[in-house]
């Protein structure tokens, strides 16, 4: 095979590989917000005023008695009323976590935590993490199913009374 022909084949292969990579859709970037009944957050997003901006969140293994657990990282310093709710282990009515697409603000995921307690508050550099335990969770994904079912597949709570 002539060197020019091999070089041409290499260039063609590289071009086709680049085209196939460019054709693969990128996963939409999202931003998360958290609203906790009775606790005022500092988000300045016009659609989420009074909510908390969320730097990241993930479900954790449920407790032995079936409570759903989620760990949520929030930028900034925790407000005093949040710290007070943690210290008193006060049962709160609802927290709502929303994941929205950055590009257009479209709702990607809605997670409602019902009858929950904030069992952990861990300060870190320029952020803190809260751990929620809820007796009931409703998790709805909007759009294509995420890989491995996403967080809705792993965020489970025992049914009420169960």
Output the keywords.
162 residues; alpha+beta; Pnp Oxidase, Chain A; 7-stranded antiparallel β-sheet; 3 helices; globular
Give structural notes.
The protein is an alpha+beta fold. The chain has one domain (30-154): Pnp Oxidase, Chain A (Roll). The chain has three helices and seven strands; from the N terminus they run H-E-E-E-E-H-E-E-E-H. The longest helix is centred in the N-terminal third of the chain and has 21 residues, at 3-23. The chain is globular, with a radius of gyration of 22 Å.
Let me know the average pLDDT.
81
User: What is the topology, as strand order, of the major beta sheet?
Assistant: 2-1-5-6-7-4-3
Quick one: overall form? globular
What is the CA-atom radius of gyration, in angstroms? 22 Å
Could you say what the CATH topology is called? Pnp Oxidase, Chain A
What's the CATH first level? Answer: Mainly Beta
Summed up, the domain count is 1
**Secondary structure tally: strands:** 7
Structural class: alpha+beta
- Helicity range of the residues? 10-25%
Strand content: 35-45%
Q: What's the CATH H-level superfamily name? A: Hcp1-like
The main sheet comes to:
7 strands, antiparallel
Write down the secondary-structure element order: HEEEEHEEEH
Give start-end ranges of low-pLDDT stretches. 5-25
> Helical segment tally?
3
Q: Calculate the terminal CA-CA distance, rounded to whole Å.
A: 72 Å
Describe the oligomeric state of these chains in a short phrase: single chain
| CATH architecture term | Roll
């Amino acid at each position: 095979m002539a060197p020019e022909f091999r070089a041409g084949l290499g260039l063609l292969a590289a071009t086709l590989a680049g085209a196939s990579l460019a054709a693969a859709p990128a996963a939409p970037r999202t931003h998360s917000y958290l609203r906790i009944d009775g606790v005022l957050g500092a988000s300045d997003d016009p659609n989420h005023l009074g909510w908390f901006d969320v730097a990241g969140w993930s479900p954790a293994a449920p407790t032995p008695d079936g409570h759903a657990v989620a760990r949520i990282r929030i930028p900034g310093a925790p407000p005093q009323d949040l710290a007070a709710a943690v210290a008193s282990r006060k049962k709160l009515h609802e927290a709502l976590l929303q994941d929205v697409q950055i590009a257009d603000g479209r709702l990607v995921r809605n997670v409602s935590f019902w009858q929950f307690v904030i069992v952990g508050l861990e300060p870190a550099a320029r952020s803190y993490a809260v751990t929620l335990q809820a007796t009931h969770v409703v998790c709805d994904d909007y759009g294509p199913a995420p890989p491995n079912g996403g967080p809705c597949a792993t965020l489970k709570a025992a049914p009420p009374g169960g």
